[in-house]
Specification:
This is Outer membrane protein beta-barrel domain-containing protein. The chain is mostly beta strands. The chain has one domain: Porin. It has one helix and eight strands. An eight-stranded antiparallel barrel has the order 1-2-3-4-5-6-7-8.
């Protein structure tokens, strides 16, 4: 019974959400920012490493509450590069100045080792696999088309490697992002 009630509530928000609010909603958004990722259990070198990189996101807003997100992340440390590409739904609670949001993203990941010495030829030894991120963030409006992403925090899970691989089977990571979010169009 509870599952049916949740389904009816979410379906109602999805179908009727755009008529329930009179405020303009951006048709799309583009985020570009810096990311810090705590890579856990990605290589046998150690239990975790600090990685820095960038995060890009595109969002199509279906209505005031629901959006569809496409996400690309690149994370670099001294021994490993991790690339993620995911997509999924986002729920936003919009107001005049701030927009908190939450999302669930699913997709793929690719990890590669960085050559240890300069004498090793540069090559892309890596494994690909599954990626998932769950989290949210807060955008603070600066102008009609620009907002600052004060924070975006996510639990990121990857399943890369397995038997015969240098990488472990599953990995859990923390990802934090900060940057600028551009909005365009109106619904």
């Amino acid at each position: 019974m509870k599952k049916q009630l949740w389904f009816v509530l979410l379906f109602g928000l999805f179908v009727c959400g755009h008529t329930a609010f009179a405020q303009d909603v951006p048709q799309g958004e583009f985020f570009a920012g810096f990311t810090y990722t705590r890579l856990n259990d990605l290589t046998p070198r150690g239990p975790s490493q600090d990685a820095f990189g960038f995060n890009l996101q595109g969002v199509y807003n279906v209505n005031r509450v629901l959006g569809i997100v496409g996400d690309f992340g690149a994370h670099y440390d001294n021994a490993t590069n991790l690339y993620t590409f995911m997509a999924g739904p986002r729920v936003s609670l919009r107001s005049d100045r701030v927009t908190p949001f939450a999302h669930v993203l699913l997709g793929g990941a690719r990890a590669s080792r960085v050559p240890v010495s300069n004498t090793t030829p540069l090559r892309f030894d890596g494994d690909g696999g599954f990626a998932m991120a769950m989290g949210g963030g807060l955008d603070v409006k600066v102008s009609d088309s620009v907002s600052l992403r004060a924070i975006q925090g996510e639990y990121m899970f990857t399943k890369i490697g397995g038997s015969g691989s240098v990488l472990r089977d599953t990995q859990s990571h923390l990802r934090l992002s900060f940057g600028v979010n551009f909005t365009f169009g109106k619904k």
